Amino acid sequence: EEPEDADEEEEEEEELLRRDPLLPAGTQRVFLVHPDVKWGPGKPQMTTATWQVAEATALVHTLDGWSVVQTMVMSTKTPTKKLIFGKGNFEQLTETIRGCPEITSVFLNVERMAAPTKKELEAAWGLEVFDRFTIVLHIFRCHARTREARLQVALAEIPLLRSNLRNNIAHQDHQGGGSRYIMGSGESFMQVQQRVLREKEAKIRRALERLRGKRRLLCRQRTRREFPVVSVVGYTNCGKTTLIKALTGDVAVQPRDQLFATLDITAHAGSLPSHMTVLYMDTIGFLSELPHGLIESFSATLEDVAHSDLILHVRDVSHPETERQKASVLSSLRSLNLPGPLLDTMVEVHNKVDLVPGYSPTEPHAVAISALLGSGLQQLKADLEDAVLRATGRQLLTLRVHLAGAQLSWLHREATVQQVAVIPEEGVAEVQVIIISKSAYGKFRKLF
Ligand SMILES: Nc1nc2c(ncn2[C@@H]2O[C@H](COP(=O)(O)OP(=O)(O)OP(=O)(O)O)[C@@H](O)[C@H]2O)c(=O)[nH]1
Ligand SMILES: [Mg+2]
86 and 92 in contact (C-beta within 8 Å)? Predict the structure, then answer.
């Protein structure tokens, strides 16, 4: 049954958000293992593991009190198999880990570890072992602020709970307990647990749908028609939030030197050179090799990108892997099934140029900026204005109107008036307006 009033809704949501800790609390000194894939003949060659290790290290350091104390790159042919490493490598790894008494856990930089693999490795090493999915999910949990973001994280956790369940039951079955029927119900313990999870998932989806419905309504009422919406996207930590702060002067915006600092889509109003107001949407950053389920649960949020008028792709050009990051962002965007024109009109901006002396962009239309120091922003705003006008079919016009006639009030009603300069001696005013559509302009010419 659907809860009827807001209190009940909130209670149900709190219940859905109650959960066990994913990672141990407090300080962790992590041993980072990166299985470097060696491809067979004819398959693409991985160039280097360095950036992957750097990124994994950054993920660990995002967690409070966690640090990487040692790193090891180990080659593997079968990163997705239950036995990730060959026998010799595994023995060497085990020996190294056992010889490091200061470490408290191991981060195996694979997308996702099967539960039995985790168990086996933990038994061999006597330490907890985490994968990329668990670490990122934990960061998401810590950074999610709004109810919507928290529910989305809860949704992303369902597959994890499901595989834990399967694993536990398999374990119990082994001991003869798992398939026992719960008295009178005709369901086994496993079936009950699976049903509970299914119901939980459905409830989360319903709660999310409710919240999104409200947001859509708000958004439509507030501004959709009037102000163009610019979605600011990019790799995590590239400076999206910093840029929005610089473009809008919004003091409530808080950039942080963290991966996935932003998990909630928020809108911030800013104005372009001709005083046109636009709404910038801050979005969740992209990361390569993220498990699909994790991104999918946030796709509802990212759907908002599909409804924007323009996409602004922010790149951190000081990052050694900036090209790879760009490719990763573009492929993620493509997988979101955005309308074609939105991808075609995308504006690319090169950020953090203060860290790259003498930088000049190789892409023809990209503007070089420093969101932190505020350089290049005038050029960016001018480019954004052109792009917004083109993408939305809006026209920016300066019209001379008679003060006596009905023109001015018509413009106030049907267009967005940016500026009015009255010339009293001539009885006219120069009005700068944004006309929402060609048909509106046609109407104006016909009327006056
Ligand atoms: N040097 C320099 N640092 C910058 C610039 N822009 C952003 N930063 C820094 O980069 C870090 C990340 O900035 P954010 O704005 O939080 O990045 P984001 O893209 O919103 O990151 P997520 O929300 O985590 O995806 C912060 O420490 C910023 O101060 C810049 O132009 N120059
Ligand atoms: Mg951010």
Answer: no
